[in-house]
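Hi,

I'm pasting everything inline rather than attaching a file, because the server keeps stripping attachments. The sequence lines come first, and each chain or strand is labelled.
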Amino acid sequence: MGSLRFNKKVVLYLLPALILYCLFHIYPFIQTIYYSFTNWDGFTGASWLGIKNFKEIINDEVYITAVGRIFIWALLAVVFKVGLALVIAYVLRKGMRGIRFFRTVVFLPYVISASAMCLMFTIMYDKEIGPINLLLKGLGLGKYVKYWLADTTTAFYAVILIPIYQAIGYFFVILFGAMQDVSEDLYEAAKLDGASPLVEFTKITVPCIWPTLVVCIILAINGAFQNFDYIFIMTGGGPGGHASEVPATYMYKAIFQSNQYGYGSSAAVILFILTLIVTRLVRFGLDKFNRTE
Amino acid sequence: MRVKNGIYGLCKYIFLILITIASLFPVIYTGVNSFRTNMQIMNTFSLFPEQFNFENYAKIFRSSTLLSSFGNSVIITGLTILFTAFVTMAASYAISCFNFKLAGWTYSLFAAGIFIPSATTMGMVYKLLQSMHLLGSRFGVILLYTAGRIPISIFLLVSFMQAIPNSVKEAAVIDGCSTWRLFVSIIWPLSKNGLVIVSILTFINVWNEYIWAMILLPSASKRTLTVALAFFKSEFYTDYGLLSAGVMVGLVPIIIVYLLMSDRIINGIATGAVKG
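And the predicted assembly:
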């Protein structure tokens, strides 16, 4: 990558980062894969189980439902985190007075910690005095008022609204930056041809920022699949035990609450494989979509 | 045509105002509530406090865990930024300026590693730290965080360093610059911008981190602020005023840093992501 001649001392510069990373990421990862085939409990010896853990997990209804949930989450994440960010970025594309103020404002939720955001939303979701329910009542939609976090049907969605809400600003900043690189001439030519904003959007903006858009979509899906903090803080996977369980919390419980390191590791491995497959498929699908356009 | 433009413009502004309200509402609402008593919060919704009552904040500062957690967060975040800076600057220097195979492999390793979900390695990292007798130690957490910041920091720094013209580096070498001198006197100063962005991103990331801080530092004395806030929820969930004040205490540092640096942060992310 560089142009300077190599000398042995340079390796020393590389080593700390390499060692740290391998020690805390690569090595544990390989261990996880190994132990997923065993029944290790974290203390006593582990005996080889072959794929028994995997068979057991696939038959666990809780896990399957959890996996289904992250697919829904991924879909919502793409539509809202990326989709909404795309719309906002497009609306602001031309820049205007106060654009910097606006960028700062929209990005703000992203820099706030998950736990702080969760606390704030816990109050906002309150059944009696929470602004969300108050707003519904004010709009005459009083019958939709619920105890959002305790209701088994809504708990999951109430929780994931938070990370989605926070990430919109992040994706907005990225997509907005990408849109700045689109040449203004293209838009002017389109205007001369009498193109409406919608046509401009689909035929000029989207194709030009496509690579960045794909990266955003992949990141959003990846984020939805792996996320753990929000569910854990808000509901712990509940209410009622599993109403908002996701594979990450499932794995956490198996390892840290039941000491089933082997079993929990297999949950982790499945999650990893799933993430890889889905992101590959999505990328493949999106590339194909782009080529046929 | 004019009218159509006018309507479009109006819709645009309304849309933007809604977005602004949505983005600011939680923080403003919480901030306002932190100055009200629980009774007031329960009775009426208001976006302006009846009085600027600092009672809630007083209670918080009297309760020592939140303060010591604040201190822990400062120590951990500060040291992580420091370690990350040194480790990643050195590695990025090696990767971006020199031509050898290990550099390429290392870089690819970092790129691939991003797909390993942190959830996957949770159990084993815990065991690893246990065997190193670093469980419950802030130092252990700092090492872990630094390792976690390595990939993204190196990506950013390498792209910054590659922007330094080769002629500059080569001229220095011809003049007899040693590897170390080159690093310290030329590369490091010229990469300051990248380092600032990396440090800010590390700050945001580490300060806000929850999972590992919760798993690895359960004791009340070593806890970080994010974890303390989460405990706060279960301890004081009935007193919304107190809860709000607690959140505000946690938010203030990050908001201050953010307001001071927002341009740099946002530009750094935008350029980094678009290039990457």
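Chain B touches chain A through 105 residues (CB under 8 Å).

If the labels don't parse on your end, tell me and I'll reformat.
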